Amino acid sequence: MMSTPTGHGAGTATATKPSPKVRHFLRIADFSADEFAYLFERTRIIKDRFKRYELYHPLRDRTLAMVFEKNSTRTRVSFEAGMTQLGGAAIFLTSETSQISRGEPVEDLARVISGMVDVVMIRTFKQAVVERFAAYSRVPVINGLTDEHHPCQVLADVFTYIEQRGPIAGKTVCWVGDANNMLNSWLEAARVLGFTVHASTPPGYPIDPAILLAAGDHVRVFSDPMDAARGAHIVTTDVWTSMGFEAETEARKAAFADWCVDEEMMALADPGALFMHCLPAHRGEEVTAGVIDGPQSVVWEEAWNRMHAQKALLEYLVIGEVRS
Ligand code: CP
Ligand code: NVA
């Protein structure tokens, strides 16, 4: 086990800038294909230990601070349970119950929190906020969802595909619906891990041009979601209205009506295709009950794998590469 040069004990009492050695996981593009391969293998090992009720406490005496500015079920439970299982502890903070809602600057928050804990997870609105926090943090920062990215979910989703079907390189992922944080993270993963995304979003909801450009020939855009689904190995979607966009709900219901994953769409995909959804889901909107509760759906495995994949991520960021 390699020890890390970072952590709450590193640096001097007066240091306000982080060590350049501190690694963060703010978006999928922050990690290389080799790092993901390492994390998927660690996820497998750590999950196997959990299934065998084997104690594994590499993060004893380590603390995770979790800052939530948006609601969560899976992210909170998976990080908190995961940290406990690794022998550490997690602190749950919200905007309302902390000084965030009273305007404490994110840079001050980063300096204070990162001097007391070993790793931080943040769920907030703008990606720029997690980036500013990371710039002033002396410990690793994990993006637990922003308007622009949801890297922990796609980490777990790719692991779920590999666990069920084998390597993802060369495969096709069909995205149906909003050009949101989940699609952006899938597009970054496509480039890093060598698969292709067939994306279909409704008129008026285009993919972020910078993300599209960066994906290069790992993305194909379709106006008809049925065409995007043809031959796909994963068909995935998400809510029509993400957190923070609630004022647009009614307009989105009209615009997204034809972007629903149903049985007819799944029939066009590869016969072994998996259906994925990060959850929470709205049956009858972006997916039919028959699909999400049907035999091709792996939505519960995705949710449970959040915890296993994030345990591997926490281990990697806090103590480095482990060979045990
Ligand atoms: N998928 C996901 O991130 O779920 P929560 O919003 O419940 O954390
Ligand atoms: N795109 C959704 C994902 C929720 C986990 C949102 O941002 O609300």
Give the helix/strand layout.
Blueprint: H1 33-51, E1 63-68, H2 74-85, E2 89-94, H3 106-114, E3 119-123, H4 127-135, E4 141-143, H5 151-165, E5 172-176, H6 181-193, E6 196-200, H7 209-215, E7 219-221, H8 225-229, E8 234-237, H9 249-255, H10 263-268, E9 274-277, H11 289-292, H12 299-319
Parallel strand pairs: 1-2, 1-3, 3-4, 5-6, 5-8, 6-7, 8-9
Helix pairs in contact: 1-12, 2-12, 3-4, 5-12, 6-7
Bound molecules: phosphoric acid mono(formamide)ester and norvaline.
Phosphoric acid mono(formamide)ester is lined by residues 72-75, 145, 153, 278-279.
Describe it:
It is a single chain. With 324 residues, this protein is of the alpha/beta class. The chain has 2 domains: 18-150 and 304-318, 3-Layer(aba) Sandwich (Rossmann fold), CATH 3.40.50; 153-303, Rossmann fold (3-Layer(aba) Sandwich), CATH 3.40.50.1370. The chain has 12 helices and 9 strands. The strands form 2 sheets. The chain has a 5-stranded parallel sheet. It has a 4-stranded parallel sheet with strand order 2-1-3-4, sandwiched between helices. Strand 5, helix 6 and strand 6 form a beta-alpha-beta unit. The longest helix is centred in the C-terminal third of the chain and has 21 residues, at 299-319. Residues 72-75, 145, 153, 278-279 line the site of phosphoric acid mono(formamide)ester.
